[in-house]
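Support request, please re-run this one:
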Amino acid sequence: MSLVDRALETAARIRPDAGVAVILRETGEVVLRWANSTMTTNGATTDRTLGLVLLVPLAGGGTGAGVVRVSAPDSLLAGGAEADARLTDAVRAAVRAAEDSGASRDAAELPPPTGPGDALDEPAAETSIGVFSDLAAALGDSFATDRSAGFADHHVTTTWLATSAGVRRRWVEPSGAVEVNLKDAGSSVWGGTSTRDFTDVDLPAILGDLRGRLAWGRRRVALEPGRYETILPPSAVSDFMIYLAWSMGGRPAQEGRSALSRAGGTRVGEQLTDLPLTLAGDPDAPGFPTLRYEPVLATTASGDEVSVFDNGASTRRVEWLRNGTVGELAYPRAAAAEFGTRFAPPSDNLLLTGGSDASLTDLVAGTRRGLLLTCLWYMREVDPETMLLTGLTRDGVYLVEDGEVVGEVNNFRFNESPLDLVRRTAEAGATERTLPREWKDWFTRVAMPPLRIPDFNMSSVSQAS
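Re-run finished. Output below.
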């Protein structure tokens, strides 16, 4: 019997009237790090965690939710008296947490299965350091000429989910990323990409682009703060759009606590731009043809956008922006019923589409005078009512004149709202898979176009390099 089935059976024995969700996750990860054009670190790790969600009817009415997460070493998987005792202790702790939590406002019956179940005794998928073989060879070739530093990561997460409502699912999520810094005496440049398995990573092309940017930096131009026509590459766009997607909570908007609020309701349906821009999370997104994200929801945390009561609910395509309008907001099932709308789970991937076929190079060629950013970092929220963010430019801001890059300018602090950027976008190019700079540790599955913003707010000069 699998560990998730044993945990489910233990919970049913201890608290037969409770709803139960058991989530086992195992992540195998390999990393490669280099600095000063020398390999410094490589290694492999495995992490396995068991999550127990107990939904317990309370004596005073309502249902309390208790969650316990424990490490799951091989001995727990193997079973036996000691493993059974650990499971019993964990279930009882979850019951106590549920009883102490009070009635949950997002309480709902666990979703029933919508299809045949999966075999839960299949082992975890694996990765190995060999996934970097082609990347390492290309890096070795570059070390003779480049002053290079960077980091590559590949991880494969296997999730098993079983619920007392009958859901039995297992799925695998592979993901990886590589980022590279090149430096010379006066400049630093950054680039990277996300990937499923590193077979599609063209490191020579990334390095060639970075070398070209170092050449741009040989001429330096000092600029004052102000509003500039600015081209945002896909990476910078992704950092803004990820924050927008994270801010699409329905309840905060309904209760007047977010930038998506308006008098008497929300801004769903409001036209932001005439451009047909659509921002969506989609488990079957074009451009990610072999990736399946969580086919059902599995979570050990509740909040305004997600609920442990929704474990086992089918995910779907959610359009946060639809053809230039505010499309949907994120709602757990209970909140969706409360506000008379549709269950909308948070995204595990994010795509912005609706632009032209123009590349970043095409947008530069069409610029009379403006700035080309590389990437953004240290982004923080300034005003939640407007979604105003501040942050810094980094690793290359370039002056464009008459369609050509003519030099590197100083870094800036910026102040911008993702909502306002959508509203003020003058041109969107072709969507491509990219890597966010600021949020890459939490979110890498993104595809974005370059954008032209006619009046991007560079609020002050920054000394960041």
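Residues 229 and 454 are 4 Å apart (CA to CA). The chain has a mean pLDDT of 94.
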